[in-house]
Amino acid sequence: MKIIDKTPLLDEKGQLGLVGRIQGSLRYGFTWPAELEAQQRVITQLDRVLEKGFVLIRNFTLPNSEIVIPMILLGPGGVTVLYITTVKGFFEAKGDQWNTVVNGRPQPAQINLLNRVVRFARAVQVYLERQKVDLAAPVEAVLISADPGAHIDSMRPIARVVMSDAIKQFGSALLQARPVWRSDVVYTLADRIVDPHPPEEVPAMAAPVAPEQNSAASRAQAIFNASEQAKPFDANDLGFAFDEEDANAPDSVSASTGEPGAAPPPQKGRILGMSTSQVTILGVLLFFEVCIVIGFGVLFLMNQ
User: Fold this and answer.
1) Residues 128-179: pLDDT tens digits?
2) pLDDT of residue 93
3) For the whole model, what pTM was predicted?
4) First and final CA of the chain: distance in angstroms?
5) Counting beta carbons within 10 angstroms of the beta carbon of residue 40, is it exposed (0 to 12), middle (13 to 18) or buried (19 or more)?
6) Which of 119, 127, 262, 289 is most buried (CB neighbours < 10 A)?
7) Sheet harboring 2-5: ordered strands across?
8) CA quadruple 181, 47, 33, 96: dihedral positive or negative?
9) Which residues of the chain fall short of a pLDDT of 70?
10) Is 202 exposed, middle or buried (0-12, 13-18, 19+ CB in 10 A)?
11) CA-to-CA distance for 230 and 221, rounded, in angstroms?
């Protein structure tokens, strides 16, 4: 499996340093470093199963937006968006509801992880449509639990839910999926995602491998045959505000106007893209860091 890592804030060695950890926690949430570690564990398991012909794009930021897609997995069977969660405890995935289970009683979780991964998949779908990519099937949303301490009871959820002990089986299922693309098309599409360019610059798919794949291959061949200039991605075209502070808010309604497809409300009181609370936390961390440096300096002078 080919891996294209677009994770922001990594150092030259591909590691998340102290500064990057602080910046990432403030920008993407305090669970972000733990989610990166969980991603790596899942990638390692999938890499042992998925063979040539699969490409995984990690933490790709959609152009002209601040939306970071955790994982986009491309394969002969289509496009899948993966979100890796590190939650522990008992949960219920029922339809579009994501509930925590306490003493046998479900209650809505603070953040709806099902809606989150579905929104990621929808964002990728719109992005590919803007690139004039004709998909054989909609982008699939998959929620993967990386921690064995999570127990999820699934009842027809809107996104596929994969437990930590079933990651390899999930990879095997992807291998057995009905192919619609050849490997060269998968690689070309991956390049198209991370480096968008006009459709006419992408070569069309070669002839299908086997006669029985004619129908699927002909659909796949059409994905790069668009002649119209691709439009740039616009997060406002998603039909919802990509803000998850309200876990129970409908996906298709903007918090500003209540109308479908409205643009998200402008964020006020932000300094360098960070909220007041984030700036405060950063200031406290910097204060402690300065105190530590001064302390070491005093000890050094006293020992002279």
Assistant:
1) 988 888 788 899 999 999 999 999 999 999 999 999 999 999 999 999 999 9
2) 96
3) 0.71
4) 57
5) middle
6) 127
7) 2-5, 55-61, 68-75, 78-85, 140-145, 160-162
8) positive
9) 197-282, 285, 304
10) buried
11) 17
Instruction: Show Cβ contacts of residue 163 under 8 Å, excluding neighbours closer than 6 positions.
Output: 145, 150, 152
Please report, to the nearest 10 degrees, the dihedral formed by the alpha carbons of residues 192, 198, 201, 206 taken in order. 60
Decide: residue 31, CB within 10 A, 0-12 exposed, 13-18 middle, 19+ buried: middle
pLDDT at 238: 64
SS3 labels along the chain: CEEEECCCCCCCCCCCCHHHHHHHHHHHCCCHHHHHHHHHHHHHHHHHHCCCCCEEEEEEECCCCCCEEEEEEEECCEEEEEEEECCCEEEEEECCEEEEEECCEEEECCCCHHHHHHHHHHHHHHHHHHCCCCCCCCCEEEEEECCCCEEEEEECCCCEEECHHHHHHHHHHHHHCCCCCCHHHHHHHHHHHHCCCCHHHCCCCCCCCCHHHHHHHHHHHHHHCCCCCCCCCCHHHHCCCCCCCCCCCCCCECCCCCCECCCCCCCCCCECCECHHHHHHHHHHHHHHHHHHHHHHHHHHHCC
- Please name which of 44, 109, 67, 126 lies closest in space to residue 248, comparing C-alpha atoms: 109
Predicted pLDDT of residue 243: 54
Give pLDDT, residue 234. Answer: 62
Q: How far apart are CA 261 and CA 297, in angstroms?
A: 56
Predicted pLDDT at 91: 96
Amino acid letter, residue 292: I
Distance, CA of 231 to CA of 198 (rounded, Å)? 9
